[in-house]
Specification:
By secondary structure, this protein is mostly beta strands. 15% of the residues lie in helices and 38% in strands. The radius of gyration is 17 Å and the shape is globular.
Length: 182
């Protein structure tokens, strides 16, 4: 069985929409993949920045493992609930959905869209759970009213990209949506 993630995005100068499936799979001892029928995970997140708003989805890993330091988690439980489920000692391992990891990664200081994308790239590159697995984050965003499409990936974006070994680093590509500005 071939396991895939479905991500559909529509981006126009007047609106953006993003859809993703919620299914996760686990790797078998023989190297195949089996869907987890009893566990669902949203593979998208929306966030606002000082200069715009973005929708982000991903394909590749649905869950990652690591210690609090490996995952880039920080701080004590906050009253806002962001850290309520993180009660770990520094060396204790945690497994979390990539969507939760994204929320944690973006939580905190105010950033621009570009700074947020670069921060995701830096944190993904520094997080051991992403090493050795091809992964693609796709971002649809508005920056000061202009639509953009960006990807953060360590994958070689070719047919059957998941069958190829990932790159050692995550790279960002971006392009504007719509006709050029005057």
């Amino acid at each position: 069985m071939k396991v895939v993630t479905l991500n559909i995005g529509i981006a126009t100068p007047w609106g953006m929409w993003l859809s993703s499936d919620f299914r996760l799979s686990r790797q078998t001892r023989r190297g195949g993949w089996v869907p987890l029928d009893d566990y669902w995970s949203p593979k998208h997140l929306s966030f606002s920045t000082v200069d715009g708003a973005a929708l982000i989805t991903y394909s590749g890993l649905g869950r990652i493992k690591g210690t609090v330091g490996d995952l880039g988690l920080r701080g004590k439980p906050d009253p806002d609930g962001m850290t309520a489920n993180i009660h770990l000692d520094a060396g204790q391992e945690k497994e979390m959905d990539v969507s939760d990891w994204l929320a944690w990664t973006l939580h905190g200081e105010s950033r621009t869209i570009d700074e947020s994308i670069q921060h995701i790239r830096e944190r993904a590159e520094a997080t051991p759970g992403f090493r050795g697995f091809p992964h693609v984050f796709t971002v649809l965003c508005y920056i000061r009213g202009r639509g953009w499409l960006a990807q953060i990936t360590n994958a070689k974006l070719v047919q059957d990209w998941y069958a190829h070994a990932p790159e050692d680093t995550f790279k960002v590509t971006a392009r504007p949506i719509g006709p050029p500005e005057d």
